[in-house]
Amino acid sequence: MPFLQPRRWQGKSKKLGEFIDTDAHQRNSSWTCKPNESSGQHCLQYTHPDFRHRASQGCDIVVAGKAFGCGPSREQAVTALLGLLGIVLQDESLYDAALDDRDISIDFATNVVSVGGRDFAFRLSRMEKALFEHGGIASAFRKFGKRLFEVMAAPRGGEG
Fold this sequence. Notes:
This is Aconitase A/isopropylmalate dehydratase small subunit swivel domain-containing protein. It is a single chain. This protein is α+β, with helices and mostly antiparallel strands. The chain folds into two domains: 8-21 and 37-122, no CATH class; 124-154, no CATH class. Helices cover 31% and strands 15% of the residues. It has a five-stranded mixed sheet. The chain is globular and about 40 Å long.
């Protein structure tokens, strides 16, 4: 049985720039932090020092430009933003509409992001939807083990 995620997320936008690389998520001075909570306390501290405070105040939906998460693959960068669901939109005007502190909602039933009085369609792959429905990769791995990707990519009733 899938993990029951809310079908609609609502929050405030926190706008970041373009080309936010993994070193910005978590700088090497804090790479020794092991617990996820500790990693999150240092997230973006050098490039966006107000990020953690703003997130704690309700700016909890990140809107970033091109190449968010580019750079070296670092476990610390991933754990610093644990739970982040990446949605790529083709309509770049979302970036202009999603100013800091703006109300933003993501409707997973209709695949629409709403911000600034405008709606923006997005797509999730079958695997992204399945992972989301199971509460993320860690939760799905606990349930399916090494069969995770086979199960996540399998066609569902009526699909493909």
